[in-house]
Structure formats: C-alpha cells, structure tokens
Amino acid sequence: MISLMINGERRKVDASPDMPLLWVLRDQLGLNFTRYGCGQGLCGACTILLDGEPVRACMTPVGELAGRRITTIHGLEGGVAKLVKAAWVELDVPQCGYCQAGQVLAATVLLRKNPKPSDADIDDALDGHLCRCGTYRRIRAAIHLAASRLGGAP
Amino acid sequence: MSRFDATALGRRDFLKVCGAAGLTLAAGSTAAAEPGEFVANAFVSIAADGQVTVTVKHLEMGQGVATGLPVLVAEELEVDPAAIQIAYAPADAKRYNNLFWGPSQGTGGSTATANSWEQLRKAGAGAREMLVEAAARRLKVDRAGLVALNGEVVHGASGRRIAYGDLVGDAAKLTPPDNPPLKAPADFRLIGRAGVKRSDSKAKTEGTAVYGGDIRLPGLVTALVARPPVFGAKLKDFDRRPALALAGVVAVVPISSGVAVVGTDFWSAHRGREALKVDWTTPANPPSTETIRRDWTALLDKPGLVARAQGEAEAALGRGSKRLSAVYETPYLAHAPMEPLNCVVKLSRDKCEIWTGCQFQTHDQAMAAKAAGLRPDQVDIHTLVAGGSFGRRANPASDYIVEGVEIAKAVGAPVRLMWTREDDIRGGYYRPMFLHGFEAALDAGGMPSAWRHRICGQSILDGGPFAAMIKDGIDFVSVEGAANLPYAIANLQVELHSPKLSVPVLWWRSVGSSHTAFATECFLDELAHAGGKDPLALRRALLADHPRHLAVLELAAAKSGWGEPLPPGKGRGLAVHESFNSFVAQVAEVTIGPKGEIKVDRVVCAVDCGIAVTPDVVKAQMEGGIAFGLSAALFGEITLKDGAAEQSNFHDYRCLRMSEMPKVEVHIMPSAAAPTGVGEPGVPPIAPAVCNAIFAATGKRVRKLPIGEKI
C-alpha cells in the first residue's frame, strides 16, 4: 500500500509503484478532475501540484510520492486560486473545457510567485499547456485580470 | 434560482455524484416528466418550483450550444438564461433530429444554431403562451392584458402576478399552440445582446464537467485496442498470453478493428496492450506521402470530373496576355481534440446503453444496434460534453462506438473504451491530403480572364453511408469553397480527381474549405501581384455581385489598417471565404525574424453569420477557429511512410501554443438575417491570410502547408 496526501486527505492505494499518479487519481480514487491528454507530459491536461509545484501526473510514478503534498484542481484553494477561477468564469475562458483545470493550476502557481506577470512570464509558465480550442487569448486576459485584483499580495 | 452548469449533473439526469470517489450510476431516464412538472414540448419543461429545463439536442464540444440554444428559448419564454437547467437530449430522431439533416440527430456542418433558430424560439414561445393562457383563466381576465416577464405572468391593470411555477399544473392541461407568436427582432433582450454568459464556464474552470472517460459503473472494465500499424492491414494472429500474464489484465479479445486488451483500469490495459503480440497482414502498395504526391501531381495534368464550368476556360487560358500556373498542397491532418476518443458501453440481453460525447446520435445508435445485435430503439445514448471533436466524433463508421459495443459484447461486462493520444494521431480518419493545380490567365488590364482549378484528393463520402450524396462522381465536400468561388471571372472551370487509398478520411473543422480556401485565396493573391493590383482592390473588383463577401472584406481591411505602411520584415495578408453560409474575412499581420522565423502578430477578423445569437460565443469561435487553423497552417501534418502515420503525439504533431497565439480582433457584422454557421467558418481564411502576409513581407510564396517555423 502506498500512502498519499491528496487535497489534504490521507489516501491509501494499492498500486504498482510505477503506475502514473494520473491513473491512481482517476481509476483508483475516482478523482476525475485530472484529465488524460497525451500520457507523455506534452499537453498539460493532467497537471497537478506536487508540494505546490505543477507537475504532469501522467509522468509521475506513484511510488515516488509518499509524504508529498498532492493538490488537484478540486483541492486548489486560497485567495489567488479564487481570483483566478473567478477571472476564468468572468471572461468565459473555457470552450470544450478539457484542458482548463491544468491551465488554472498553472496560472495559480504563476500568480502565487509573481503577482504581476508580463506576457512573457505567462508564456513561460503556460506554454506547455495545450488548448486545441484556442482559448489562449482569454487565458492571458484572465491571468492579467486576476493579477489586477491581487493588489500585490501573493 | 441558482445558476446551473450545463456540464454538471442535473436534476433530470441519470447520474448521481457519490462523493469525491467519482460517479456511480443510478437508475432513471431523462424522458419521463416528474410529478407536477409542465412539459410544454420536447425542449421546455418547468417544475413546480419554477425551475426551467431546456433540452439541448446538440453536442456541446466547446462551440457553445449549451449557451446559445437555451438563449433562444429564454428569449421567448421570458426567463433568465442563467437560471435555466440544461438536459442533453436522448437519441431520438423523431423529436431531436437536426432539421437540416432530415430524420437524423447529430451535430456538424455548423448547423446547431441555424437549424434550431425557429424551433427553439417556438418552443419557448409555445410554453409562454400556455402559461399566459393558464394565468388568464386563473385570474379570469382577458389574456391581452397579461404579459410574461422574468418568470412570471403579470396583469398590468391590477399589478397581480403569478410565478411560472404556480401555473405549471394548469398549463400542463392546455393544448400546445401550433404557431405561437414570435418576438420581432427589435424586441430581443437576449439574442444578439452583449452580456449573456456561457452556461458551462464554472464547471469547466473547476474541472467538474463530466466527459466520457469519467463515467464509472459497477464492474466497469477499461479497454484499449491494438489496431493495425499500417492502413489496410488486417489481423492475422495474436498471442494473448503475455498480456494476460500481467496483473490487472482481465481479457484479450479480437474485434473487427483489431485486438482489445481489457483491464481493471487504464494503466493495466495499457501495459497489457504493450505486452500483446500481434501479427498483421501486409497490404500491397501501402501509401507513402511521397508516392501520393508523385502520383497525384501526374493526375493534375489530366482533366478531372467537372464540378463547375462557366465560359470557356481552356480556350481563354490561351488567349490571355499573361499566364500563371501553380500547385498548392495540403497534408493529412488529425483532429487531435484534447480529449482522446472514449465511450462507456453497458450491454444487456435487450438493451445497450452508451455514454459519450456523441456527435451523431441517430447514426451511432443504428451502428451500435447492429454491433450489439439489437434494434436501434434498444440503444440508449447518454450524450455528455466532449473535450473537443472538430469533426472526429461525427464518424460515418461510428468507429469508436462500434469498438466499445463489440468489446462489451465479448467480455460480458460494462466497458470503458479509451483511445490513447498515439491511437488518435496514428488512427486515421484524417482531413484528406489534397493537391490543387491552377492555371490562370490575365487580360491586358491585369484582370483574371480565365481560371482552371484541378483538385485532387480522397473523397470523404465515398464508400460510406452518405455516398449517395456524391452526384455525377463529384463529392461536394471535396470541392466546397472552390466550385462556388465567388469571383467574377468569365471563364472558370473547377475539376476533381478522387483517387482511392486505404487511409480513412473524415471531415475536419471546416471540411473542404479547410484546404480550398488556402489554395484559392493564395492563388488569387498571386494573380493580384502578377496583374499589378492590390489584393484588396482586386477582390473588391471581382466581388461586386457578392455584397456579403465584400462587406466583411471592407470591414476587416478598414479595422486592420490595410494599406498603411509597415516596417521592413512585416507584412499584411488578407483572405475572405464563405463557408456554412457565413462570411469571414481576415487580415493577418506577420513579422519575419532575421533567420526567417515566422511570428503571426495580429489577426483582424470580420464575420457575417446572420444574427449573432450570443456575440461573445461568436467571438470565441472566431478566436478558436483562428487558433485551430493557424495551428494546422504552421505545424499540422500527418505524413505516411509505407502505409503508417509517421507522427504519434504532440511532440511531432505540433499544435499552437500560448506564445504563438496572435492578438485577435473580431468584428461582427450587424445583420437581420437568420443565423448561419459559427463553429467552423473562422478556420478557412487564416492559412491564406498568413501565407499572403508572408509573401507581402518576404516575396516568398508558400504553396505547401504546413508553413513550418521558418520561411
């Protein structure tokens, strides 16, 4: 059994250590909010936070995660996250929606570290997150909108 | 009333969320009325608490039908669209058919809003009239003195008001009117107005929207399919033992498309599929991109079937004062929606239930029935939202649905079929590769006097259930956007070659226009430069009889600053195209770096789609269409080597990234015409606009897509 800390809850899973976290979350724990897009760390749809840093769950073997703090979109909390999600809804960012949880997680981490990101900062932080619907302009606008409401407080 | 998210699970839905551990299904149906409910018609019902439910018959795949269609109802029903609950329609060709498709339910061809335009306003108006009538009887007043307003019927003279919820019992007893009066456009308070929000933003931002791969059933197993590595190959033999030896692999079964490996979860099935040993047949003459190009280039020298002829193109080609010829090429393209294909199938002796982002309900229902050995009416399809599709889920072969049913039948358990990204990129059903051969002549004044366009590529309709739509050998989807070229050229001929290959092909967002717009709008640009004309001025002169083309062209040109000087290394290009009865013009501005690096800085887009029901959704679709088209124009390419796709995932099937997304400005033409397509028409003009801009900046003509990172 592997003991995981997911969204502040202790969860025990019976999984082979090489099983990617993505499939532990989805198929063993029923945490569907983390999505499969490519399985190779190329698209960002499966992004989760590991000790607060974005990682690709599809490439993260679960055996390495004992004692680490795992956060999915479902457990993404705090003032910055709230502002990011509100900006996303206000600007109607999503289309098909499949990539958006990953985008929101990446944007939240960006703003936690850098409350006034430039366009180049946003590109750096989110370029690994593909959106086939092409919501990039709205993602960028939503990050700036959330930043404008942060008042400089991370 | 609380806002309801279209994608989350509704009161009338059949799913119950069971804590954070995921979803388990409960019995139930979307069809039955609840006690005390007023089911006004197939689309509108109102509960005793006033909750309005609108049934959406189309697939929400990002294009916004779960926002726009309820707005049509809300406009006439006089309710707040944000308070509407959405239910996705069951498969039912009688009640929920696409009115443009005859007796078939499905989403495609950018028809969702257009075919629903009158139907849903009537549905809202009909419910409203019944509520008003019920109130008139209750209050014993003339109904002329009553108005419906924000979920209530109000008696103006006395100020008395009755909430819709308090009228449902009485309204349910009335006969629905056949032709309820519809509002005049001047009275619209929602349609065409800014401020209507998407119904699904919250669920999709928070990740709670439910897609096909999220469905869990008791005893559910997960299946992946090993499919032939080469198009046209068939299963010869396989050894299931190495797969079955692995933990979590529960079955290995042959199906019509290959060999299914079934596991307790995705990872087990995936490992099982890797371990599986399969022998495939070797088809004769497997196609390679190089050989296709060579063969089809030769075909372009031969006359094809005539898709359009006016004047005498051949003779006029010889009479011009200047002659031009060019060959344009577009590659095979995968749809690559973010959500790879999947479906969940539960089969019993007399019933088949399917959960998926279904785009072709009636057709998929029939194909599933055939695979299951049942009647179509024994197949229930629960349509979920889709994580994109771009045409992939509207497949005449119902490929992934049939796979799911065949596996469920073989293993005797509910099955979740998953495609990996590699399956998606290598799996065919591509936008076909096309070659376009042009010959044209200019007269002494530099105006085009002859235009011959030979198109060569696989037919999408050929060999499938829609083959009857091929007329005199011409598959109209191969030539759309070319055979209806709007330019006034006296001698014009469009011809088609439709060679057959083993590569499965399919419509891809904007279908024929995805390649014909590129070829025709770039070649016209060549004619403009050869004739010493400004590309805008030439189009203007040739579009005098096409006011809607002309209007979007003028609007995009004006907003873009067309004609204003740009610094060296930058260029502007334009394109205009009609598709799905909408008209879109785009002006692209590019910067070429010192090493030829291409950066698309800005795109100005003008669209005439009739009445824009939800203008912000129209803008989003133009933004998204531009991103999708640009992705393909710059990077998109499936190449074949000995019958197999050479690409497999996003590292070699490159898609547009955040840093590559240009600034996009969308201008919507005011219109009183009925709504036309929106989901697709933003795509076709971007590739030619960018290529024409590259020419303006560099003098280099791009005649083959993708452009690549550098010029």
By helix and strand content of chain B, what is the structural category?
A: alpha+beta
CATH class category of the largest domain in chain B: Alpha Beta
Domain count of chain B, please report it.
3
Helix content of chain A: 25-40%
For the biggest β-sheet of chain A, the strand order reads 2-1-5-3-4
Number of helices of chain B: 17
Mean pLDDT of chain B: 95
Instruction: Tell me which CATH architecture of the largest domain in chain B applies here.
Output: 2-Layer Sandwich
Strand proportion of chain A: 5-15%
The computed structural class of chain A is: alpha+beta
The main sheet of chain A comes to:
5 strands, mixed
CA-CA gap between termini of chain B: 56 Å
Cα-atom radius of gyration of chain B? 27 Å
Oligomer: heterodimer
Biggest pleated sheet of chain B:
7 strands, mixed
Total count of domains of chain A: 2
Output the CATH homologous superfamily of the largest domain in chain A: Beta-grasp domain
The CATH topology of the largest domain in chain A comes to Ubiquitin-like (UB roll)
**What is the tally of beta strands of chain A?**
5
Helix content of chain B: 25-40%
What descriptors fit this protein?
heterodimer, A: 154 residues, alpha+beta, Ubiquitin-like (UB roll), DNA polymerase, domain 1, 2 domains, 5 strands, 37% helix, 14% strand, B: 711 residues, Aldehyde Oxidoreductase, domain 4, 3 domains, five-stranded mixed beta sheet, 17 helices, globular, disordered N terminus, Ald_Oxase/Xan_DH_a/b (chain B)
